[in-house]
Amino acid sequence: MNAKEFVGNYELTQSVICDRMSRFLPRISHLKHLVYRCNLAKIGKVDGYAEGELVRYIGIDGCKAGWVIWSVEQEQPRCQIVTQLAQISDLLANSTALIDIPIGYSDENTPDRLCDKAARKFLSPKRSSSVFPVPSRQAAYASDYVEACEINFELVGRKLSKQTWFILPKVIEVETLLAEAPSLKLRESHPEVVFAALQGSPLEQSKKTPQGQQDRLDIIHSIAPDWSEVLINQLSETKARQANRDDIIDAFVLMMIAAKAENLSTLPEQPDRDPKGRVREIVYWDSVIKTAH
Fold it and tell me: InterPro entries per the record (predicted)?
């Protein structure tokens, strides 16, 4: 029996499929990829989902047009760009999703979120600047930038950068979404932390440079080669006015590790909560090799 024949036998369990693949495919690197793909196709294996319910995995990053959404179910990656997350509420309802946006604010007792401090240390020294300070909730809801700076300085001892101010509408959008649908399995991640963990060290080149983007694509290809062509095609098809190339790559890698949601690590190891109860964490995949064996 060849690999194609037994993969087509839908009565086989995931564990049997992976076991038989390991005997028929001698190349270790290819075997790791096949085991990884078996994990991607899990059905009813994530806590909180009913037995037999199809589980989707989603990666989300902000972009010029709104949001880049990568999703996968039954091993088929798909990309879409939406203006509001509410447009994919049905997609999110039965999904495990990671998003590159802060969830949970700073406050008087924690002026710099513990997850952000841990992420900067994790990425030091090359990429630590990619983790910006998250303001207080009161500052986020200020009427203008000047007021936000004043409020934040009073509460946590620092003003806001313009970059932080401009991203706050998306932070508020995510908070609103979670308030309206608290059962959503939506967690905060950070692509630079994810790539650093997958490589084993922070990446040397910025994601804004051609070399930096290629380095990230190489990491993705080493883990999910069957998906690389889909990603490359999307990079070619997406208009610059909709999303930057790095936004598409970042959302993709979050989707990829969302498929390992049962095995994600967190920064810090013991996340805390903001005054409203939001978990303050940055999740990442600690070890591809460990999971693949």
Answer: DUF429
Rounded distance between C-alpha atoms, residue 18 and residue 39, angstroms = 9
47 pLDDT exceeds 50? no
Nearest-5° angle of CA 258, CA 133, CA 196?
Answer: 40
Give the separation between CA 193 and CA 122, rounded to whole angstroms: 7
Neighbours of 48 (CB within 10 A): 9
Got the DSSP string for 24-92? H---HHHHHHHHHHHHHT-BS-STTS-TTPBPEEEEEEEETTEEEEEEEETTEEEEEEES-GGGGHHHH
- Tell me the residue type at 11: E
Place of tokens 């508020």: 172
What residue segments make up the domains of the chain, in order of their start?
A: 56-103+182-285, 114-174
The residue whose two tokens read 């806590």 is: 47
**Are the CB atoms for 64 and 241 separated by under 8 Å?**
yes
Compute the distance between CA of residue 74 and CA of residue 57 in angstroms, rounded to an integer. 10
Q: Is the pLDDT of residue 41 over 90?
A: no
pLDDT over 70 percentage in the chain: 78
